[in-house]
Amino acid sequence: MDAMRRQEIAASYQELNEDGEHVAEHPEPMEEGEEEDDNQDTSSAILPVLDCESDTNSPSVRFSKTCLKNVFSVILLFIYLLLMAVAVFLVYQTISDFREKLKHPVMSVSYKEVTLYDAPGIALYPGKAQLLSCKHHYYDNIPPLINPGQPGEIECTTQRINYTDPFTNQTMKYALIVQGPRDVKKRELVFLQFHLNETDQDFSAINYLLFSSFQEFLNSPDKAEFMKDCESSYSSWKFSGGFRTWVKMSLVKTKEEDGSETVEFKQETSVVNYIDQRHKPASDQLFFVVFEWKDPFIQKVQDIVTANPWNMIALLCGIFLALFKAADFAKLSVKWMIKIRKRHLKRRSQAVNHIS
């Protein structure tokens, strides 16, 4: 009996030794699918898995390469989240700026150079004053007066018209329409002289207004209505007796929101005292006025919208593309984290089973 027990125990020890040698020589191979998944996952994305256990096979206490890689992945994910927040803010700011620019267009001013202007119309309201002379001169050269206060040559194109006051519709107004200068390069000017024999007013002055085109006035079928519209649309000025008033005109065209264009005159005036050397009664008064273009530039004003919709669309497309890329990255990162965590736990359980 003792001999048989010794033989059985010896056979059991031999089997254990053979099993241990078999396990040592033939360890359990890793599945081929898992190895391919590891290569694919590590090459496709970096996942924020904080598995910072030290390498059990290394005797020194340090972070493994995987731990350092995962720490860097966490930092990278936070950067992606920050960029997403900045992208959302840029979307909001871009839309707000575009709406603000649509509400508040910017005034654009440009200048167009011309050699010849369309001759403007000069509407004068002399009242009891008489037109003595009207001449065109060039290069700012006005010859000395001959027989001032006496009728002279009238070389200008003029029209006389009566119409009712557009503001009262009761008072009749008398206007003398004179064709203005055209040639700005030759510095053409129009020189007019008026004479007022007597007046019962304390101050003597003649009103005038400027409108854009004398030819439009001539072509108008209803000149009285044309002058009423001009008086309602344009500003009027005055020049006083006993002085030579020099008016330098400039033209401003403004484009309205509905596409229509309005014309406005700006002017600079200089006044020079006239030294009257005639023997005249005290009530006699002379008026002198000169009309000339200031410069050959027409000023054009229009409101423009600086917001470019194509720029905004391109910016929004780039922002949304960045958002989609960041969301896709976060989705893949979560999947990769779950897969790697499961694989790590599986390997750990296998190691515990081998030890036990």
Can you describe this structure?
The radius of gyration is 49 Å and the shape is rod-shaped. The model is unreliable at 15-62 (pLDDT under 50). The two termini are 34 Å apart. The chain has six helices and twelve strands. The longest helix has 47 residues, at 309-355. It has 356 residues and is an alpha+beta fold.
What is the string of SSEs from the N terminus onward?
HHHEEEEEEEHHEEEEEH
Percentage of residues in DSSP E strands: 25-35%
Note the quaternary state here: single chain
Mean pLDDT: 77
Fraction of residues in helix: 25-40%
Radius of gyration: 49 Å
What global shape is seen?
Answer: rod-shaped
Structural classification: alpha+beta
Q: Which residues form runs of ≥5 with pLDDT under 50?
A: 15-62
**First CA to last CA: what distance?**
34 Å
Q: What about the largest sheet?
A: 7 strands, mixed
Number of strands: 12
How many helices does DSSP assign?
6
Q: How are the elements arranged and paired?
A:
Elements: H1 2-25, H2 32-44, H3 65-103, E1 106-113, E2 121-125, E3 130-137, E4 158-164, E5 172-179, E6 189-196, E7 205-211, H4 214-219, H5 223-233, E8 236-240, E9 243-255, E10 261-273, E11 285-293, E12 297-304, H6 309-355
Parallel strand pairs: 9-11, 9-12
Antiparallel strand pairs: 1-12, 2-5, 2-7, 3-6, 4-5, 6-11, 7-8, 9-10
Summarize the structure.
This protein has 356 residues and is an alpha+beta fold. Helix content is 39%, strand content 28%. The protein is built from six helices and twelve strands.
